[in-house]
Amino acid sequence: MKAALLLLTAVTVAFTGPKKPIKSQSSASSIAPDPDNGGLKLANGFGALVFADNLGKARHIAVNKEGTVFVKLEKLNDGKGLAELTDSNGDGRADQTVMFSTNTGTGAAIYNNYLYASSDTSVYRYKLTNGKVLETTPAEPIVSGLTLQRQHASKSLAISPDGKLFVNFGAPSNACQEKDRQKGSKGMDPCPILEEYGGIWQFDANKLNQHKADGKRYATGIRNAVALDWNTATNTLYALQHGRDNLNNWGGVFTDEYSAEFPSEEMLMVKEGADFGWPYCYNNHEKKQKLLAPEYGGDGTKVDRCAGKDKPIMAFPGHWAPNDLLFYTGTSFPARYKNGAFVCFHGSWNRAPLKQGGYFVAFIPFGKDGRPSGKYEVFAENFAGVPELGKPGTDVNAGKLDLASPGDAKARPVGLAQGPDGSLYISDSVKGKVWRVLYTAKK
């Protein structure tokens, strides 16, 4: 109870900005995109506008049925870690911003008329009243008392329709070595980190004051899954895993170029009890195999214990950093988008000496079997201010761009949400821009 009281104190709502009468959200068909689509290049038939800007270092976003947009911040903006954005005049753009909460973090979701959010050590929620968080609304602790990790600490989350709360517990390690990220340091076997991290844990979204021990490990062998979503069409959890770093610490076939391109970023269909192999294994998307990690005796060809591990349903080049996932359920986009997946590729530091990769939003068509039915497509790009060099499936430079480092990117896509009218919202982690993407052509 003491921990719960401390959490409530830490996340007590504090608001700034006036309250205004709110109109219902305007439909996408009545809104005009920005002339330059907010600087983005989009798939044919789509337009975009800047819904909000300069919020700070944004992470995940959520939109409720009233059209209110909530943005979680990685760093405090004027002492606040959550933004509530409202389009009160129906022009399709936010004209009212209310900042609240003193917690930073990543996760944001709407469930059962509550806003759920996460810090790196907790998950909490706010009751919504007419789609808003009132000044007097307290933060209710759902899961608290989690240990602050020194890496991969983001507690991204997803909630199933029946109230299962899934939380990412990224591994506070690169490859579970005796000495983390050190050349020649062997992997611990068995890896003790997997007892508490390196997987996805399940809690009850409707129960207050839970702790780590109240949850259960739902799936393991996942180094870090910032991108999570529940697919209502298949009633299944999905995630995207950030692959490990520093394969080049082992020399030989593990060259700098190999380490930049591998291991894959993996899209996972996450069933209860699944084991995707980290830290013992990594994925090679060219060979379409899970291979034994060098810390455990791998040489770039050995499969060994990895033969029995669960495999990804799609794999991407290394270090594109998939940071959010959204299964589209709206009807304002063409029918082929229904139940398909959008993925934010945030870009990463670890691509040298090859070209940077990611910095775009992909669309992946899905079949009724809950698996991709085609190759990924670049849906939205030019976030970084530099165009992609090639088209998926036709060019070795697909998804890559001439960018020296992530710090040179003008914007980096990090969060996705769907509005009640079917619009797609995309957040940026550099300055906190939020785009609203609309279908503008005739269906």
Give a verbal description of the structure.
With 443 residues, the protein is mainly beta. The protein has one domain: 6 Propeller (Neuraminidase). The protein has helices spanning 2-10, 256-261; strands spanning 41-42, 46-52, 58-63, 69-77, 80-86, 96-100, 108-111, 114-118, 123-127, 140-143, 157-159, 164-169, 199-204, 216-220, 227-231, 236-241, 265-270, 281-284, 289-292, 314-316, 322-327, 341-345, 356-357, 360-364, 377-381, 400-401, 413-418, 424-428, 434-439. It is globular and about 60 Å long. Mean pLDDT is 92; it is low at 1-24.
Number of helical runs?
2
Q: What is the count of structural domains? A: 1
**CATH architecture label:** 6 Propeller
> Span between N and C termini?
55 Å
Could you provide a short overview of the structure?
With 443 residues, the chain is mainly β. The chain is built from two helices and 29 strands.
